[in-house]
Amino acid sequence: MNIEKVALDSIREYHNNPRKGNTSLIAESLSTYGQYKPITVNKRSGEILAGNHTYRAAKELGWSEIDVVYVDVDETTAAKIVAIDNRSADLGEYDNEKLAALLETLPELDGSGYTLDEFDALIADIQEETTPELSKSAFSQVQVGETGQSGTRYIETLAAYGERYNQRATRMLMADFPPEIYVWLIDKLIFVRNTHNLTSNGDAIVKMAEIISGESAPHESDQNSGSTDTQD
Q1: What pLDDT was estimated at residue 132?
Q2: Whether residues 218 and 195 fall in one domain
Q3: Which residues, including other chains, have CB under 8 Å from residue 61's CB and lie 6 or more apart?
Q4: C-alpha distances in Å from residue 194, one per residue of 1, 19, 44, 90, 146
Q5: Same domain, 19 and 74
Q6: How confident is residue 161, by pLDDT bands cut at 50, 70 and 90?
Q7: CB 66, CB 35: distance < 8 Å
Q8: 69 and 44 in one domain?
Q9: Domain count, the chain
Q10: Tens of pLDDT, residues 111-124
């Protein structure tokens, strides 16, 4: 494979590229690390078959040259190369645990293409994959009637808590509790809510932390970075 450095104005984007890439992220990569893989250009037409958004990002950065690999193919083959290059990227999958382990080795996420929120979502996905399903029968022995509440939505039984626990969207604070510990913990949170007239499990957790530490939790106005809601 012969890599050549050519003028940007000597090549052009493929005329019918269906891909919508993240040019700004590619530009960030080029600015930080330079070009570490060439783009592919059809010698017959000067059109880019793989790397159209890398080319676009380089133009936005004001580059005058770019590394390319030339192929010499007809129009039909060129279209197939464009299609399969995009499709192969679509069909790829991640090993989430290996990806998380890779990102955890970095001192910071800047320049990795990932944000802290995306990393948190990745960890949530892993926990979702590995957290065992909780059977409603594990909660059936304890009835809390109309006292159980999460935010503004009443939960009538601990069995209902078990069902909601399996839904990641309602489990912002996640921990690997075995079912019997989770039943016990929810029961104690309900007790704290009732005792202190609180309206959510998040408030109950904060109250318990205040009791244990002997300190008052900071108010939302004291936080420079905003607040984080804690649900079931």
Answers
A1: 57
A2: yes
A3: 27, 30, 31
A4: 72, 55, 76, 51, 11
A5: yes
A6: low
A7: yes
A8: yes
A9: 3
A10: 899 988 888 888 88
